[in-house]
């Protein structure tokens, strides 16, 4: 073997040595976790709940930094362009890493797959189907029958065009083969106010938002669109139990790193997230807030999940006509 050939073979390993050494010492300073949404929302709350558990594993502080704007894409883009040295991570969501691909058809400033490394999922956020009592339906089957008999007659509200609740509604209507008028709001709170007032007949949002009003009788939650029952509304059936076995709708959160982050850092961060999320007391509190922990796996498992989510939801976003461009 020639000297040139030996040098060529040795070069990749030599280039990798600084990264390996840096990863072995990681973390030697506080770690930033960017939440691309405002403080107080479910993404922020869940990140702050698991941060202490991550700190115990890592031996360094995990500092939550809110960088809200543009549906989660502003903070996500900032992390995509950050140093890939384990100093910063992103608490991404289905909105920032899946739905945005369909919404920002021309100008999404990052590629959710190429510009990030999937580290670990954290929690699932179920979507539920809720109606105003004036609609005179008590079960999901009755709602389906009503909508199929009256396509386009009724309206439904969501917290915004192109959000997870809107796409959940589009998926629901596609599943049952009917139509309804979408009324998008600037957030879940104003949507809820109009749903309570009967200004819209149906609403798609999280059980945490709806539970108090369902339990008081002001609204009727007809189904939870995941496999688990709601902790706050345990009597409400899942969509499968209510007669729609193929319908699921949810959001999810998960930790991402900038592309190029050394594998040893990604592996250790994955272990920190897994232990923090599944710590019994933290998991219990998350479930009480209707943020059930996602079954944990490797970074490769999360990357495969991401690919399947893109294949599932992006066509629905584009079919909905919603756009952020």
UniProtKB/TrEMBL annotation:
Signal peptide positions on this chain: 1-23
Protein name: Tripartite tricarboxylate transporter substrate binding protein
Keywords associated with the record: Signal
Family recorded in the similarity comment: Belongs to the UPF0065 (bug) family.
Organism: Teichococcus aerophilus
PANTHER family, sorted: BLR1237 PROTEIN (PTHR42928:SF5), TRICARBOXYLATE-BINDING PROTEIN (PTHR42928)
CDD domains associated with the record: PBP2_Bug_TTT
Keyword flag Amino-acid biosynthesis: no
InterPro entries noted in UniProt: BUG, Bug_dom1
């Amino acid at each position: 073997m020639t000297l040139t050939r030996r040098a060529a073979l040795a070069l990749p390993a030599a280039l990798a040595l600084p990264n390996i050494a840096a990863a072995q010492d990681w973390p030697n300073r506080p770690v930033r976790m960017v939440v691309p949404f405002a403080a107080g929302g479910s993404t922020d709350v869940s990140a702050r709940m698991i941060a202490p558990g991550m700190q115990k594993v890592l031996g360094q502080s995990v500092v939550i930094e809110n960088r809200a704007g543009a549906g989660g894409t502003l903070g996500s883009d900032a992390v995509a362009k950050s140093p890939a040295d384990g100093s910063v991570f992103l608490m991404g969501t289905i909105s920032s890493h899946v739905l945005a691909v369909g919404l920002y058809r021309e100008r999404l400033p990052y590629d959710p797959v190429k510009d990030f490394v999937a580290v670990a999922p954290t929690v699932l956020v179920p979507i539920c189907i809720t109606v105003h009592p004036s609609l005179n339906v008590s079960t999901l089957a009755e709602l389906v029958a009503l909508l199929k008999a009256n396509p386009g007659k009724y309206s439904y509200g969501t917290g915004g065009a192109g959000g997870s609740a809107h796409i959940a509604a589009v998926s629901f209507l596609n599943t049952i083969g009917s139509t309804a008028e979408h009324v998008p709001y600037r957030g879940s709170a104003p949507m809820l106010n109009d749903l309570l007032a009967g200004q819209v007949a149906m609403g798609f949002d999280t059980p945490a938002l709806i539970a108090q009003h369902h339990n008081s009788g002001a609204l009727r939650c007809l189904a939870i669109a995941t496999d688990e029952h709601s902790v706050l509304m345990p009597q409400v059936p899942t969509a499968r139990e209510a007669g729609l076995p193929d319908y699921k709708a949810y959001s999810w959160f998960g930790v991402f790193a900038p592309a190029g982050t050394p594998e040893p850092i990604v592996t250790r961060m994955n272990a920190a997230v897994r232990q923090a999320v599944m710590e019994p007391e933290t998991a219990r509190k998350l479930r009480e807030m209707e943020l059930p922990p996602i079954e944990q796996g490797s970074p490769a498992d999360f990357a495969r999940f991401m690919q399947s989510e893109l294949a599932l939801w992006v066509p629905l976003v584009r079919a909905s006509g919603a756009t952020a461009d």
